[in-house]
């Protein structure tokens, strides 16, 4: 896809519905998440992360407005994808379901496809693409064709391409328990696997034809397509197809390859994967071998002679050299409410607030590796102790693959894992009747309701003996619970946010002004530390707080003395496990990583 910086994609998904007559469709969220990762993968499509927009469909008007906003920014290509329920309204018009859509009143609270059509056609992009995965999606073809033909005589209409999962009167397929719907699963597979004999890049036409062949062969609903002004010839994705090795005939000698690296390149082996000497012409390599041999003998003789006089120092252990750690602004950030480093230090995750998504970056390079599509507003993110899971307050993900492992019933305002991986706690800051709940991360099943009291912050002690919850605006203090039994152990005064020290001896608690350290064994206040909210501890006991004066501060929990002050305004922040870096989400919609190494 050329001019990728001027191409935008909006992936609209609706996995949950208020209407009990519309069953949940968790595959819709997985579809959007997987397609977003593919579109931003440099090896496949390579769109900038900022140009891939995940849009949770909660309200039809908001969806239409956001589509129109992004449409204005696309100059080269504009792609819109929808996954959810498709419904027929009056006169058999197509409506796309959003969270608040109802079957009985779809004409009033459903997303009228004509709105989507107008938003797409209003874009100045040279190519406009719409992919619809829902029941009756084939009706999108007639609607788009009618508008294009009407406008054709009035202005120079850009190329338009429509791909649908079904025909105009057919239901879509979403196999029970499958991660993706049938159509999108096949689409993703073709984009990931490539197409034999299709060239280095694949057009939209080739993608559709392969998807259509595969679905027919499996006896699944047939997709449909429509094209205006050769839009289907747009190069859409790099061809990932790798041909299988040719079978060897018994007794036959393989042909002798030509000299030099050209044969390897022709065979598909990238030049950068060859040793440098294999990239040289054959004659240079032959003469070079002799030269290198002579040089090696001379160096060996000198080294032998020197070893007789002075013992050689031990060779440096280069296997322990640290990888360069990223510092700077992370790409693709936005409305962020929570940030976290994985305990192994490899990943950074940020909860995308009203974007209903979680962004995941490689902590060493700053490259965005995945976008995770959640069900609702993301208020918090947390990694499991082994870094194999990341949880929002409503969904549990595998951060490496992007797989939605479990949906958490009645998620809330904060989330925390126990260090032994046995418990996942959620705190509901919206519904006091939900309070604090414990789940089994392995199964996603609810294990215990700790309390139904309002709670908005959670933390497990590293030794697993305590679960702390705060009562937020109720101002009733911090509750210390035994996660095994659910019994209340102690109540402490402050109630805004809590974190445990790495050795499980102390609890840092805040009302937003003074942070206080408590001895867990006695419940006695040990000392006051600075100003602000508690955010995180590093493994060596350095405490990070954020103050109302737009500053981040680092303190030694052992002495209470300040270590460093950063004049940074933060909505959310977290220390890396080694305490050397801070990830900060700011009101200017950026997420940056700051180096604080050597200052404590």
Q: Order the strands across the largest sheet as they lie in space.
A: 2-1-3-7-8-10
| Broad shape | elongated
**Tally of DSSP helical segments:** 9
Strand segment tally: 39
- The structural class is alpha+beta
**What is the helical fraction, as a range of percent?**
10-25%
CATH names the topology of the largest domain as Rossmann fold
Alpha-carbon Rg, integer? 29 Å
CATH class of the largest domain: Alpha Beta
Examine the secondary-structure arrangement and name the CATH architecture of the largest domain.
Answer: 3-Layer(aba) Sandwich
Please tag this protein with its features.
four-stranded antiparallel sheet, 19% helix, Methylamine Dehydrogenase, Chain H, Thrombin, subunit H, Rossmann fold, 3 domains, alpha+beta, six-stranded mixed sheet, 600 residues
Overall description:
19% of the residues lie in helices and 30% in strands. With 600 residues, the chain is an alpha+beta fold. It folds into 3 domains: 4-238, 3-Layer(aba) Sandwich (Rossmann fold); 328-526, YVTN repeat-like/Quinoprotein amine dehydrogenase (Methylamine Dehydrogenase, Chain H), CATH 2.130.10; 527-600, Thrombin, subunit H. A hairpin with a 5-residue loop joins strand 37 (572-575) and strand 38. Helix 1 (26-39) runs parallel beside helix 6, helix 4 crosses helix 5 (139-152) and helix 6 (182-193) crosses helix 7 (204-217). The radius of gyration is 29 Å and the shape is elongated.
């Amino acid at each position: 896809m050329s001019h990728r910086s001027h191409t935008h994609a909006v992936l609209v998904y609706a996995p949950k519905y208020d209407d009990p007559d519309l069953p949940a469709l968790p595959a819709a969220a997985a579809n959007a998440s997987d397609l977003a990762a593919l579109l931003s993968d440099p090896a496949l499509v390579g769109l900038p992360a900022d140009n891939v927009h995940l849009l949770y469909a909660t309200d039809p008007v908001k969806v239409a407005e956001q589509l129109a906003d992004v449409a204005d920014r696309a100059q080269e290509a504009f792609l819109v994808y929808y996954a959810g329920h498709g419904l027929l309204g009056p006169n058999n018009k197509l409506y796309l379901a959003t969270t608040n859509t109802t079957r009985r009143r779809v004409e009033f609270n459903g997303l009228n496809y004509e709105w989507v059509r107008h938003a797409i056609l209003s874009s100045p992009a040279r190519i406009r693409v719409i992919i619809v995965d829902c029941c009756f999606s084939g009706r999108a073809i007639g609607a788009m064709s009618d508008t294009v033909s009407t406008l054709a005589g009035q202005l120079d209409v850009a190329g338009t391409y429509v791909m649908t999962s079904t025909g105009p009167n057919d239901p879509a397929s979403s196999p029970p328990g499958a991660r993706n719907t049938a159509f999108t699963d096949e689409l993703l597979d073709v984009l990931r696997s490539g197409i034999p004999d299709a060239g280095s890049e694949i057009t939209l036409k080739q993608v559709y034809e392969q998807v259509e062949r595969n679905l027919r062969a499996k006896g699944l609903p047939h997709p449909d397509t429509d094209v205006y002004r050769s839009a289907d010839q747009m190069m859409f994705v790099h061809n990932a197809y790798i041909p299988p090795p040719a079978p060897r005939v018994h007794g036959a000698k393989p042909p002798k390859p030509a000299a030099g690296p050209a044969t390897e390149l022709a065979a598909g082996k990238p030049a950068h994967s060859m040793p440098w000497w294999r990239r040289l012409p054959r004659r240079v390599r032959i003469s070079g071998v002799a030269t290198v041999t002579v040089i090696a003998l001379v160096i060996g003789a000198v080294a032998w002679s020197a070893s007789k006089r002075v013992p050689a120092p031990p060779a440096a252990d280069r296997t322990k050299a640290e990888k360069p750690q990223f510092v700077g602004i992370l790409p693709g950030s936005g409305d962020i409410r929570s940030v976290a480093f994985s305990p192994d230090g490899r990943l950074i995750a940020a909860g995308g607030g009203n974007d209903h998504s979680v962004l995941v970056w490689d902590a060493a390079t700053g490259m965005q590796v995945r976008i995770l599509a959640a069900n609702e507003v993301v208020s918090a993110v947390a990694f499991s102790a082994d870094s194999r899971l990341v949880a929002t307050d409503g969904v549990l993900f595998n951060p490496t693959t992007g797989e939605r492992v479990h949906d958490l019933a009645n998620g809330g305002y904060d989330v925390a894992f126990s260090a032994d991986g046995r418990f996942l706690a959620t705190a509901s800051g919206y519904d006091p009747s939900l309070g604090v709940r414990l789940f089994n991360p392995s199964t996603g099943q609810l294990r215990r309701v700790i309390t139904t009291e309002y709670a908005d912050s959670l933390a497990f002690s590293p030794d697993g003996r305590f679960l702390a919850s705060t009562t937020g605006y109720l101002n009733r203090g911090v509750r210390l619970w035994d996660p095994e039994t659910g019994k209340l152990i102690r109540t402490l005064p402050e109630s805004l946010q809590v974190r445990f020290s790495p050795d499980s001896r102390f609890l840092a608690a805040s009302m937003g002004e003074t942070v206080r350290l408590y001895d867990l064994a006695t419940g006695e206040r040990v000392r006051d530390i600075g100003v602000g909210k508690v955010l995180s501890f590093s493994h060596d006991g350095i405490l990070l707080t954020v103050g109302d004066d737009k500053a981040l501060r680092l303190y030694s929990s052992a002495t209470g003395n300040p270590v460093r002050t950063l004049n940074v305004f933060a909505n959310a922040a977290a220390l890396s496990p080694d305490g050397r870096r801070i990830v900060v989400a700011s009101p200017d919609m950026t997420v940056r990583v700051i180096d604080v190494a050597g200052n404590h």
